[in-house]
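User: For a benchmark we're assembling, each entry needs the component sequences followed by a predicted structure for the full assembly. Here are entry 17's components. Please fill in the structure.
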Amino acid sequence: MIEYRGYNVIEKNDRVIVENVRDFEPVHIFECGQCFRWLKQDDGSYTGVALGKVVNVSYDNGTLQIINATVNDFINTWFGYFDLGRDYSVIKQQLAKDNIMKKAIEFGHGIRILKQDIWETLISFIISANNRIPMIMKVVASISEMYGEEIIFDSKKYYAFPAVDKLAGSSVEKLKVCKGGFRCKYIAETSVLVRDKAVDLNALSGMSADDARKELAKLPGVGNKVADCVLLYSGTKYDVFPTDVWVKRVMEELYFKREATFKEIQDFARKYFGELSGFAQQYLFYYARENKIGLK
DNA sequence: TTGCAGGGGTCAA
DNA sequence: TTGACCCCTGCA
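Assistant: Structure for entry 17:
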């Protein structure tokens, strides 16, 4: 056993066991709308492909288990991916300043914002436009299977999300096999722009959230909402408040008590939640969607 | 069984 | 500011 950043980490056969993990609930993390490649297994654990690896993740009473990982994998990959260096209890305490947020936080108490690969996040959220989650998952899986590297886990085949060059070298016609519909054109064009560094994804973290959003919006298929999602779910910026129809509905019903414009909601969030806007958005979105808040 | 509306938005007119 | 857009699912 070793100690790493306050966690006890044990490697056992094909897995790592991490003790002293708080504010971690797989259902909340994987089903709060930030990721599309984690599938719930019969035993309640989740198996997913991320950062070129396949692992199975489960959690019980402070103990996190990651199957198909070593201690080195934990330190170099999963510690960061699961944002384990951040104390979510502090964030929750700061955000729980009204009854609405208290309820939302209680409901999604185990949410953590994953630090996902920004390229994969970009393409995934271009696909999300005017689309449903099961469909988005199918398209991302299909693109990975067609263009990504095969990975074997538990004698099953999985596929890593493809590198930029792979998609940039594809034709729109071939991409359409993945059922992305009208978004395939955006994917093809965006891939070329990213490959040629017309937009440098690595430079975004050094910009303000506003500038980073504007930079991303240069890409076809990327508007404000998709840009905010990309920035938040890649762990690049946390002071953004992705406002989709669900967030709009929950904000209108619970805070505004009337219809509100996107701009009003964005301005309100920036003032009210400040640097923690992104975290607030996740708790609110998950709460709204799971409880169908604002649906007539 | 067939038909139709609409979805975690973006783009173009 | 408004409608079209691929494809799929849910519901008449």
